[in-house]
Design a protein that fits this description.
The complex is a heterodimer of chains A (about 500) and B (about 525). Chain A has about 500 residues and is α/β, with parallel strands linked by helices. Chain A has helices at about 5-15, 30, 40-55, 80-90, 100-115, 130-145, 160-170, 190-200, 220-230, 250-265, 290-295, 300-305, 335-345, 350-360, 370-400, 420-430, 435-445, 475-495; strands at about 65, 155-160, 180-185, 200-205, 235-240, 270, 305-310, 325-330, 405, 415, 415-420, 450, 450-455, 465-470. Chain B has 19 helices and 16 strands. Chain B is globular. Classes of the chains: A alpha/beta (about 500), B alpha/beta (about 525).
């Protein structure tokens, strides 16, 4: 295990010995992991922020973090009711305070009763507080028009990411040609590629169709699957709906087609539905995979294995920092389900404040509750603003020459395609950078706007994109979009 | 079936209220009916089965929430349903969860947390100014001034600075660099992450990880999952569970036959054993790690739980530093702490940190990258950690109450530790080492041969058999020693000292009575 030459000379100079843990001796799978959303461009953004703080002059006065789906970091306010109930749970002395509405107090008491020692500070059981899992099941039933959900099939998690990793972990087996393959959309949210790299599973790409608003085509699934069978054992199919980074909302027919495909080809379905509350387009509607699966009847409904994920980080709540989430498993082998619980138990339990928050998300104030009106108003305001920002983004980008943007039907991002002049592409390659990374770095240096290059999510060869959130406040977003399109025009001119 | 399927395909029609009054589509109602009648014929084999699943996950065991705890859950349900038992409640003495057993959270901590959660309260006269100051400081360091934003993957900056300051104070001035601090989702998260990065190689060069026997079974579980090689070193029961470097040497030598031992894990104060390592012992271990080129993991989550007046907590970091530059510049060390234990008992918040020493800068980059995939640890847990490392100081409004509460909790734990040790040692056939620290008793039980045979007939480890019987007859749930590891032919169980004093006395008495009966029964 030789170190690099740089290492060795440094070591010699400092009289230090070679370390136990080096790039060469570390877990090679971990080394292969990449996660662009917080990758190199964000690190550069941090450096620039540091420089600004130190008074270094820049062509901009602030760095805009349009790289990550964090609504509250961009000024979105938390929902009052959620924070009231949580505060009451955290500090139950407040139950005596006149400054909290009665319904909030009732909720807090209900949650605390279900906690060990009536405290958020106790571990819960590893699948999450029983009462909250029951509430989640009821939420799912209401959402899906009455189709039953079993609380025993609901597992709370530390954000959706935690549960996605756990399910993928269960699926990875075999070696060489029989190694588990997992189909993921391109473009994808890079948690999937990162996790597959870490687990040493085989990533199998299926391309979404940019020309048709990022539609999912079963023929493409077929193509990907057939090619994959050459070198791995495909066992799972991941779908993100509404899509990240693409924002498309799948039609019901498409979901049925995917389910049929998964069933025929014996693929475990993972449905990442964290943006289920973020649907903006008038022609789009969210259909849960669970609901469609059940409504398709047997054999699908009783045999197709499915795991569906949700989170408190998105929607109208934006409670990213609390790391709340759940997975609902359908038709999972009972013995495997026990194994999953066992795996979760090693980490004891998901954060209890996050569980409490999730409870409020799945059972919000009812129309007869005192907090209902304010809750509704806040919720509608957030969603309406997001919808307006989605439309604005789409509009500005579509009008810009050299930039095209599919409709932002849902989620929180735009993923516009950018034309880059050949000289820029060449220069990027000389610098050892993906062309859209080069573009994004230049954008950052010139304007302070931080977005994530399309290469971080995957895209068809020879195409370039970036993912930008729609989260900054409306007027600020307008300015950003204008700055960005101006920069793109300038960039195009400069490298033509 | 066909008709049902056809109906279901039309499922998106107008909603009609179902017979049970809920508003649902008629198709959905049919779907429900169908689901209750599963076809008896040919269910095809599932994709994900015990045979096809990840074998490494299958190999994982975690006794603290294992079979005996599942059984305890079943019994609780039976009690709820009114089934008569020789007891009225199940006592969960299996897990180090203080608040679940009635310990009260620290007032100041919850005040600051409430202010952070619902900042409107900053205008309330019911909160002390020092709590508000802390809350404002935390919120200002959060994106959008809210606990609801993701933080940097390494954790909120000012909290890392506070952790570094805490470590420096704790270690008598030995400096800690905030850049070496990583906030984590409980200590378990940090431990798991570091082990993950360390594991490499194949066959005889597969990474070996030295762990104490008995150990906290997070270690064996993670090692299993990562398909690393577990290398056991035995703590010396006759010597108060002391760590003997000769035993480390033996373990490493034997391990080199079949793996590449790279990592040495220490739990101090110990879990389940409760021993607090002497400074000399820590120096010996560090020297050994230096000699053998081992990466050191120091699990120090019980650093605030030291009861024995003859014992003192010495952090590995401090001792390493004080051993001089040959060690302090070379030995790679990761130390872990948590909000779950100590006097705080904030298990549910999943707060923790690790401090890394002498890690290669490129490795630190890899570490942040790995952590970034999961975005960040829960920010409320980070805030809780901040208060733990930055508590009220003399002169501050909340200091007196804070001190009182802290001393009360720790005094209580110390009392219960002594009580437990003394009572167990009065029971014939039980021997309990001094509970110098942590939260557990790990008494040795001497089981008659007939009991061991009975256990084997039931295909259970003898101490699992014992613990199951204890659970069924008294409702007391403890974890068998086989879940933690022990020398061949010895039997133990781990019981927490967390129930309130009077209840603990009752529990101990019940265990005593049970044990005496058990000895008679299997004489």
């Amino acid at each position: 295990m030789a170190s690099s030459t740089v290492d060795q000379s440094q070591v010699a100079r400092n009289g230090l010995r070679e370390k136990v843990l080096t790039l060469n001796s570390m877990n090679p799978r971990v080394r292969r992991v990449e996660y662009a959303v917080r990758g190199p461009i964000v690190q550069r953004a941090l450096e620039l922020e540091q420089e600004l703080r130190q008074g270094v002059k820049k062509p901009f006065t602030e760095v805009i973090r349009a790289n990550i789906g964090d609504a509250q970091a961009m000024g979105q306010r938390p929902i009052t009711f959620l924070r009231q109930v949580l505060a009451l749970c955290v500090n139950p002395d407040l139950l005596n305070s006149p400054n909290f509405p009665d319904d909030a107090k009732k909720r807090a008491e209900r949650i605390l009763q279900a906690c060990g020692g009536h405290s958020l500070g106790a571990y819960s059981i590893s699948s999450g507080i029983q009462l909250i899992r029951e509430d989640v099941a009821q939420y799912i039933e209401r959402r899906d028009g009455g189709i039953p959900a079993d609380p025993n099939n609901v597992f709370l998690s530390t954000g959706a990411s935690d549960a996605i990793v756990t399910v993928l972990k269960l699926l990875v087996a075999g070696e060489g040609h029989t190694r588990t393959g997992v189909l993921i959309p391109i473009p994808q949210y890079p948690l999937y590629s990162a996790t597959l790299a870490e687990l040493g599973a085989v990533q199998v790409d299926y391309y979404l169709e940019e020309e048709r608003a990022w539609a999912l085509d079963v023929a493409e699934l077929h193509r990907a699957l057939c090619q994959a069978r050459d070198h791995c054992c495909p066992r799972a199919l991941c779908v993100i709906n509404p899509g990240n980074p693409t924002g498309q909302v799948q039609t019901r027919e498409c979901i049925e087609d995917v389910i049929r495909f998964a069933f025929q080809e014996r693929l475990f379905l993972l449905a990442d539905e964290v943006y289920q509350d973020n649907v903006y387009s008038a022609g789009s509607q969210f259909h849960s995979f669970k609901k469609v699966l059940m409504e398709m009847g047997p054999p699908y409904a009783v045999q197709q294995e499915l795991a569906s994920f949700h989170s408190t980080s998105k929607g109208y709540m934006g409670e990213c920092g609390f790391r709340g989430g759940y997975v609902e498993v359908v038709n999972m082998d009972p013995a495997v389900q026990q194994q999953m619980l066992k795996l979760m138990s090693v980490r004891l339990c998901p954060p209890v404040p996050g569980q409490a928050l999730l409870d409020l998300v799945v059972s919000p104030p009812a129309p007869t509750d005192p907090s209902f009106m304010q809750f509704q108003a806040e919720r509608q305001a957030v969603l309406a603003e997001l919808a307006a920002k989605a439309r604005l983004t789409e509009q500005v980008f579509s009008e810009a020459p050299g930039i095209s943007c599919n409709p932002v039907q849902g989620a929180m991002y735009s993923f516009p395609r950018i034309q880059l002049p050949p000289r820029a592409v060449q220069l990027a390659q000389e610098l050892g950078l993906a062309p859209d990374m080069f573009f994004c770095l230049c954008l950052l240096e010139e304007t302070g706007i931080c977005v994530v290059p399309g290469s971080g999510f995957g895209q068809r060869e020879g195409t370039y994109h970036f993912r930008m959130t729609i989260l900054p406040p409306l007027e600020k977003l307008r300015l950003l979009l204008e700055k960005l399109t101006r920069f793109h025009a300038k960039f195009t001119l400069e490298y033509s | 079936m066909q008709r049902a399927a056809a109906l279901l395909r039309r499922g998106c029609g107008p909603r009609t209220p179902g017979p049970w009054g809920r508003n649902q589509s008629s198709a959905a109602a049919e779907a429900s009916a169908v689901l209750n009648v599963r076809p008896e014929r040919s269910r095809r084999e599932r994709i994900l089965t015990l045979e096809s699943m990840n074998p490494q996950v299958k190999a994982v065991e975690y006794a603290v929430r294992g079979p005996i705890v599942l059984k305890a859950g079943e019994i609780e349900l039976e009690l709820q349903r009114g089934i008569k038992k020789p007891f009225t409640e199940v006592i969960r003495a299996n897990i180090g969860d203080a608040q679940a057993m009635g310990q009260q959270p620290i007032t100041f901590l919850r005040q600051v947390m409430a202010l952070c959660t619902y900042p409107n309260l900053l205008d309330s006269p019911s909160f002390p100014e020092d709590a508000k100051k802390r809350a404002r400081r935390i919120l200002q360091a959060c994106g959008g001034n809210s606990l609801g934003s993701y933080s940097a993957s390494q954790g909120v900056n000012c909290i890392r600075e506070d952790v570094a300051a805490y470590i420096t104070r704790r270690d008598g001035g030995v400096p800690a660099d905030p850049d070496n601090i990583y906030l984590t989702t409980g200590a378990s998260d940090g431990i798991s992450t570091i082990l993950k990065i360390l594991v490499s190689g194949g066959g005889k060069s597969r990474t070996g990880v030295l762990i104490p026997i008995p150990q906290y079974p997070l270690y064996s579980a993670v090692i299993s999952e990562l398909d690393a090689i577990q290398v056991n070193y035995y703590l010396d029961e006759e010597n108060c569970w002391a760590l003997n470097v000769n035993e480390l040497r033996r373990a490493v030598k034997e391990a080199k036959d079949h793996c590449d031992p790279k990592v040495l894990c220490i739990i101090n104060p110990g879990n389940p054993t409760g021993q607090v390592q002497s400074r000399k012992c820590i120096e010996d271990v560090i020297h050994f790690a230096w000699e053998e080129k081992l990466f050191l993991l120091a699990d120090e989550v019980y650093q605030d739980n030291v009861y024995s007046p003859d014992c003192r907590f010495h952090s590995f970091k401090k001792v390493l530093y004080e051993m001089g530059p040959e060690y302090s510049s070379n030995v790679e060390l990761a130390s872990f702490h948590s909000t779950s234990k100590g006097y705080m008992g904030e298990c549910g918040y999943r707060g923790g940190y690790m401090e890394v020493i002498n890690l290669h800068p490129e490795i630190k980059g890899q570490l942040v990258k790995l952590l970034s995939v999961r975005l960040c640890p829960p920010v409320s847990g980070q805030a809780a950690m901040d208060i733990v490392v930055n508590p009220p100081v003399p002169g501050e409004e909340s200091f007196e109450q804070f001190s009182r509460e802290k001393e009360s909790v720790l005094g209580n734990l110390a009392k219960k530790a002594k009580l437990t040790e003394d009572l167990f040692n009065q029971v014939p056939g039980i021997h309990c080492n001094p509970l110098q620290g942590a939260m557990y008793a790990f008494p040795r039980i001497f089981l008659p041969a007939k009991a061991v045979e009975a256990a084997q007939a039931h295909q259970m480890a003898p101490d699992m058999f014992y613990c199951m019987k204890l659970l069924e007859e008294t409702g007391i749930c403890v974890v068998p020693g086989s879940g933690f590891g022990q020398r061949e032919g010895t039997y133990h169980f781990r019981m927490t000292i967390l129930p309130p004093v009077e209840k603990l006395k009752t529990v101990l008495q019940k265990v005593k009575d049970f044990h005496i009966n058990f000895l008679e029964k299997y004489a």
